[in-house]
Amino acid sequence: MTRRSRREARQGVLAQERTAAHDNRIPVSARAERTARKRRARKKIKTIFAALSLLIVAAIVAGALYYIDLHNRMTITEVPPSLLDTPTPPPTEPFNLVIFGDDARNPDELERADTIILMHVNPIEQRVWSVSIPRDTRVELPGYGPQRINAATAFGGPDMAIQAVEDLTGVDLDYFITINFWGFEEIIDAMDGIYIDVPFAIDDPLADFTPDGRATRIDPGLQNLDGAHALTFVRHRDGYVDGDFGRMGAQQLLIRAMIEQMSDVSLVRIPGIASSFADNIETNFTPFELMQLGNEMRGIDPDNFYSTTLPSEWRAPFVWVDEEAAAEVWRNFGVAPFEVEEDYYDEPATPE
């Protein structure tokens, strides 16, 4: 045995002797109580860890069941590879998205798209470019000839609609969402309403979906609109100078407000919003991808939302695209803020 090991051995013996001497000075009852306390403390720690483990397992199971429930309730449609010319990026990277708003009165019916909005979303920089496409824009649909672009969803579902948007704009799409207006209403209600600065008084029974006409009128000024009134707001068009173009401006205003206010939504409302969304959309996003996107875009600055309408004009029976002006829009799309944002909703057709 080396000198160092002998010294360490002596030190160990001395330490044991000091401990024994100390324990001998403590009454037997006190030593027993101390031992009992140590056992109780260890048992308590084990109980806490067991409870935490059960909570973690329960949370994981609940999350998995919730995800499965959302997945089963969503209509998830795979887009044909022929329409996706480039690999689809994850929603944590920049991507192109088209949103179709379905005006069907019956949620099970396939109707013409009342709203078509093309977006470039950059989650890394938290910026969004949004271009509204007039629903009456002239396009060529295979097998149907010259048609209004909103007919593509009725004739060929998402596949034909995506192809029509790509052919019209030259933008390769990655994702699509079709949402019916019933779902739009439910989502707004799940958010506890949406704050909108209404530019002028609206009184439009044709834009009101409620059976009792309760959402026909909207007062001017800052309003917290429930789902029914928000739907009237985005469907109203007769009060604008440029009719449907004015309505598209109002839709852009509401989307901007939703993006801004979604960041402030209470966490307890998120499951309700997700459920309303899942029940009323068709998309090629998975629930997990939508959750990723929501997390990436949470807290976006509204000034980073750039919106415009595809430059065009009405020449019966179609809206015709102004190719030169549209080229400027596509040069800025996903690159720089649009130079001109169309604020049609600022001006009513007639004084109130």
Briefly, what is this?
By secondary structure, the protein is α+β, with helices and mostly antiparallel strands.
Description of the structure:
The chain contains 9 helices and 15 strands. The chain is of the alpha+beta class and 352 residues long. Strand 14 (312-315) and strand 15 (318-321) form a beta hairpin. The longest helix is centred in the N-terminal third of the chain and has 46 residues, at 28-73. The relative contact order is 0.13. Residues 341-352 have low confidence and may be disordered.
Which radius of gyration do the C-alpha atoms yield? 31 Å
In whole angstroms, the N-to-C terminal distance is 105 Å
Number of domains: 2
CATH architectural grouping of the largest domain: 3-Layer(aba) Sandwich
Report the portion of residues in β strands: 15-25%
Number of helices: 9
Structural class designation:
alpha+beta
Q: How do the strands of the widest beta sheet line up side by side?
A: 1-12-7-2-3-4-13
CATH superfamily of the largest domain: LCP protein
Shape: globular
Task: Please name the defining characteristics of this protein.
7-stranded mixed sheet, about 20% strand, alpha+beta, 2 domains, Aminopeptidase, 9 helices, about 350 residues, two-stranded antiparallel sheet, 15 strands
